[in-house]
Amino acid sequence: MKRLSCIVVDDEPVARKILKEFIEQVPFLELTAEFENVIKTEAFLKEHSCDLVFLDIEMPKLSGLEFLRNSPVQAMVILTTAYPKYALEGYELDIIDYLLKPIAFNRFLKSVHKAKEFSDLKDATTKENFPPYLFVRSERRIEKIEVGKILYIESIGNYISITTEQKKILAYLTLKAIESQLPTKEFIKPHQSFLVNFSKVESIEGNQMKVRDKMLPISRNYRDAVMQLVEKRMLRR
Questions:
Q1: pTM summary value
Q2: Which of 68, 106, 149, 190 is the right S-S partner for 218, CB 3.0 to 4.6 Å?
Q3: CA 199 to centroid of chain Cα atoms
Q4: Per DSSP, what are the bridge partners of residue 187?
């Protein structure tokens, strides 16, 4: 069984202790580090990889949400907090789940199984060829989407809006979930809330890219990745 490497980030020792005890009870989880602030976390993630981050929100100096906004995290993230008011913003930052303190073990278990299912799905997709189409649930229908006809995908809370050449579909998914099913060479993330089919980009001007009649933002954290892809396909004399 593949084990998910985890780190716990919380300024409260008691909260870290509870999460560590929970992690020890789940066979597919492995705790690799713990931190009391995001400054140390960021330094750790620059040198090490991990699969899953349990991240508190309200911490001194820099909050968990500020950390996610300013530092793109490759690992899955489960937010842990005593405040439900942050839930919507958390999902807009593409988290796996949102746990309210005090955290019950059965709720913790449900959350980490969600992370494991996402990880397993991503691994399976990586080993296989990407399919030319996907199915997603939208309201009471199951919609078929041809991958090549997707223009862009936008995260809206805990939903995503998929804009294709013919229609727009609202689905109860995270951006991270659908990103794992799309070919990385064809889709790029110019902003934490958007995925774009790069072949549909008509122009780039400043911190925006045009896709059909829509101007999409290019954030500072993702601009280098966008421009690297542009440079690879730039015609020169």
A1: 0.60
A2: 190
A3: 22
A4: 197
Looking at the structure, give the CATH architecture of the domain made up of residues 4-127.
Answer: 3-Layer(aba) Sandwich (3.40)
- Beta-strand pair 4-9/52-56: parallel
Beta strands, E only, 82-232: 97-100, 133-138, 141-146, 150-156, 159-164, 168-171, 187-191, 194-197, 201-205, 208-211, 214-217
Euclidean distance between CA atoms 195 and 150, whole angstroms? 10
Each residue of 68-120: pLDDT tens digit?
888 778 899 999 988 888 777 777 777 888 899 999 999 999 999 999 988 88
Model pLDDT for residues 31-64, shown as the tens digit of each residue = 999 999 999 998 898 888 899 999 999 888 888 8
Nearest-angstrom CA–CA distance, 86 and 57: 8
CA 79 from chain center: how many Å? 12
What are the structural domain ranges in the chain? 4-127, 133-232
